[in-house]
């Protein structure tokens, strides 16, 4: 039995047919079904205007921001296997990742640079949307969701900044939280709750860890879903 | 506006259409050429993602993420810097009290960004000097002047220079292209074609585009100054002295 | 069901149930939020004590500034007496440095400059360093970094 025959047999099994409901034949019906019957791809319409495929219409900035979010999720989850949010274990785990764990340094580099790139790409995406006027009705609300996602990107990056527990991390967070403290009325209380105390210590590290790994990514995922859904519902990319 | 109604107004279905004068004359979108999402769009997305991952992987192989010594709450490094995307803000903190630079300015920026689509900002995209020219000239000159005075009062030179430059550029477009500096550049210089293009580009910008460009320029300049030109005690240094 | 019928029925029993339900939901939500807020409010703090001994008065020469960066405090002895300054910059909380040669205190973060009596010499800080409580206990000087005192308070010994 050659490979092609084997493939035909596998594809014909009920198990395979239960997962992929249509054959991969180069017909428009199958191409439509590829998008239509896939939970991930059906964020797209079955057909798109040929014009919107042009690179200069979007420069891929939004899509690449999302790609970075996915890359950050994967590398971040892997890093969590070796990280303990405690003092001074957090810093020791950084050293361990860097010098002991196989590919540990590479994963940390990927996570770090992808985080910087994401902030940059989200900002550029916002500028692109502004200059192409893509925020005008009926997409006003999606622009607001986008602004919230920009803020979330900054917060995600900022909360992650404390986790290595090195000098860079500690003093960047000191300056940042004292800026928040300057806010009238709620500032000092907000800082106390964010740090879980008056000084940046163990409580603050655990709080930033939970925010960085659970709360903010979940919030971003929900807003991303809304953002993509609205792109689809408010009409595709059709700049002037 | 034109309303049509039959003699039996009570029974006949009626339709009143209100047309805003700014609506394009043709409401029906022209027949666009559509292509299948799979493979045309999906393949492009995958290629873009792959290029991104390759670049990211290469960068990560050759450049290590920074890791300094263990955090020491008693010893502030000099200079102590926030992540690069907050250094524009930290640069502002050097000039303004924390309430202004740390709370007021970021809050205003976020609010300004959020309300953009709700205040019909830049919807018609008419160029800045296309209508109400004298009123806009006085208003904008006054606004730019106030901003410059405000920045001079706090000695924010890094923000004042680009603000003044962009303000001058914006107002320099005001005279017709036959006169003034642009007239000279366009008609008398060897670079005439280039300046004609620049003039046409600038003259087509709406007020909102000017403001957004000003904001982005300022954000970039302040971030670059904070990142590359600030040394011990937040004093001015050259990037190679860092 | 169209909206007119809901509205017509909304005058009596249905309206009452609607508001009771919403009210219950709102109360539960507000209660939950309050509990959550209290939950994230730490009850015990394992932080270093704010009050500590710094030494006997005789061990500090007259007209000297002694920096204790570990406890974030400057102890100054003038001809009149002692006072203590918090080394935490009033701008954004960086730890300041006393530079002997210049006779001034500098903040490394944003370039604020203070005199050794705590007063502000140069921004961006908007006020001088905090002068904190100091007292004599069993012949030793005790500083409380949480207790701020008047700008000209001096402990005469």
Q: Quick one: CATH superfamily of the largest domain in chain A?
A: Cytochrome Bc1 Complex, Chain C
Classify the oligomer. heterotrimer
* Largest sheet features of chain B: none
CA-based gyration radius of chain A:
23 Å
SSE topology string of chain A:
HHHEHHHHHHHH
Give the percentage of residues in beta strands of chain A. under 5%
Number of strands of chain A: 1
Mind sketching the topology for me?
The complex is a heterotrimer of chains A (240), B (242) and C (157).
Chain A: H1 3-12, H2 14-19, H3 28-36, E1 47-49, H4 55-58, H5 61-80, H6 89-99, H7 104-131, H8 140-162, H9 167-181, H10 187-195, H11 202-233
Chain B: E1 34-36, H1 37-62, H2 87-95, H3 98-115, H4 133-153, H5 157-172, H6 180-188, H7 192-203, H8 207-228
Helix pairs in contact in B: 2-3, 2-8, 4-5, 5-8, 6-7
Chain C: H1 3-9, H2 13-39, E1 51-55, E2 64-68, E3 73-77, E4 82-86, E5 97-99, E6 104-106, E7 113-115, E8 120-122, E9 131-137, E10 140-148
Antiparallel strand pairs in C: 1-10, 2-3, 3-4, 4-9, 5-6, 6-7, 7-8, 9-10
Could you characterize what this model shows?
The complex is a heterotrimer of chains A (240), B (242) and C (157). Chain A has 240 residues and is mostly helical. Chain A is built from eleven helices and one strand. Chain A has two domains: 3-43, no CATH class; 56-233, Up-down Bundle (Cytochrome Bc1 Complex, Chain C), CATH 1.20.810.10. Helices cover 70% and strands 1% of the residues of chain A. In chain A, helix 7 runs antiparallel to helix 8, helix 8 runs antiparallel to helix 11 and helix 9 runs antiparallel to helix 10. Chain B has 242 residues and is mostly helical. Chain B has a domain at 84-174 and 206-241. Chain B is extended. Chain C is an alpha+beta fold. Chain C has two domains: 3-39; 51-148, Rieske [2Fe-2S] iron-sulphur domain (Rieske Iron-sulfur Protein). Chain C has two helices and ten strands. In chain C, the strands form two sheets. A six-stranded antiparallel beta sheet of chain C has the order 1-10-9-4-3-2, with no helix packed on it. Chain C has a four-stranded antiparallel beta sheet with strand order 5-6-7-8, with no helix packed on it. Chain C is elongated, with a radius of gyration of 28 Å. The chains are: A mainly alpha (240), B mainly alpha (242), C alpha+beta (157). The interface between A and B is large, with 82 and 64 residues. Strand 1 of chain A pairs antiparallel with strand 1 of chain B.
